[in-house]
Amino acid sequence: MNKVPFEQWITGGALIALITLLVWGRIRAVYSFIIVTAALYVTGVIDQSTVLGNVTNMSVITLIMLMLSALVLERTAILFWLATKIADENYYRTLCKLGLASSLSSAFLNNTAVVATLMGTLLNNPFHSAKKLLIPLSYFSILGGTLTLVGTATNLVVNGLLQEEGLPSLAIFDFLPVGLALLIGCGIAIFAISRWLPNGGVQKTQTHQEYFIEAELLKGSPLVGNSVLKNGLRSLKSLFLVEIVRQGRLISPVSPHEKMEEGDKLIFVGDVREVSQLSNMNGLELFSSDDFDLEKNLQEVLVSPESILVGKTIKQVEFRSRFDAAVVAISRQGQAISGKLGELTILAGDKLLLATGSDFDKRPNLSRNFFFLSQRQVNKPLSLQQNVVGIIGFIAAVVIASATPLSLVETLSAYLLCSLATGLIDGSVLRRRFPFELLAILVCALSIAAAFSQSGLSTQIVMGTSAVLESVSYHHALLLIILLTILLTEIMTNTAAAAIVLPLALSMSSHLQIDYMPFVMAVAYGASASFISPFGYQTNLMVMNAGGYKFVDFIKVGWLMTLTYIGIAYTLIPIVFPF
User: How many CB atoms lie within 10 A of CB 89?
Assistant: First the structure.
């Protein structure tokens, strides 16, 4: 029996650890990648040149330049213009417009920004329940990312891995033939599954439900010493007292005869539009203090996955001083929340109701931390000329890169310089929203993939299963790669899935002595197929909380999407990219 080299044992253990950490979900994905990469570096499996080489990988630089350029395009009126054209009295016409707007935008823009922009319009549309539209919005944005090389980070990661192996780079529109078929085929599936989507009623009523609101009983309040019933807290309109936090002790359920004490923290659930009932009670103060006008300055926001709030409490980040705002209420994917608001750990996708001060709009960190569910535009609108330069310039950068020897990095660099010179965007915005976390994940993912390949572990796995591989057809081997990638994508990040499976796919194609491109594309398309789990893709998580969906809602519609996606990809990849 051959002895397995030390590097393969370490790499295998590192991959298992990475998958475990990502599935566990208690540690942020970026930290999981850094920990595993550091372990591979310390044990000598990868060296400094490998890590630094991935920092300067052209695909990584391209993605970063693309995301920075997208910040400029986000400031233009194009997404807001598209948003105003979507709503239609006919549901299926609305769905069709939504599909075209979100998928075509996501082919070139960060789909998180696309979803964030269009989501506000859907939540406030006067014709259809947002629950009938938000999951399709996420699915269409995912499908749009499969149209081009720059449509999703996954495609660029795959391209970067190919370059690391010394293989030719992919072109911008190599993904278009299969991606377009996926968009059309799965788009039809979205129309079919729309009847299974929950219907939560029209207008904004649903988005105001299930908020958790905290109030404190002040010293000297006339409410002290009286029962909950006597103080009128059982007869509030659309608000219900669910628990009292008293000197670190939780009282729940709350009896109508419970005597109220000074310093009690009262936790209510219900419609935030009725919060003024509490603020008007003598001696009862909301978690947001009197510094903020609740009648005029309420803002509903969604916590971004990039936010500094994620994993911390409101008190830890000094929320008031940082944002000139206070958290009035919080909602979390329909889940019950217990305890004081200031001590709750904030998660990505949490929905917050903010009472804002006069300086709120001037704070420089809003766009990174929040997606606004109201159609409030924090930035000063661009002029007509600036909009033209921003939109036409971006299109020109992509077209020139695809039609000339110039690379996308070069054309996007020129676009950014032009944008800075014409005032389309400020340098401080680029510094503030530079995607450091994504950069770290990409570099670590490429480094882990390099260890998987260079240690010989991917080849060893293929050789160990050679008897099985030789008994199956090329098409079945391709299907295996698609299914494995989709499975990993649903339980972890799509970037990690691509980084883990691609070296295995390349080794498999080499062992079978066939062209590698069908297997490369199987990984790329498979890593974008996240329809069943709301936690497998960032846009799914965003719409889950904004629309008040449950996990089962994604399973109910996602299985048909996934089967349709697999069928189209499995059929067309070998035709467009022959073995």
Answer: 9
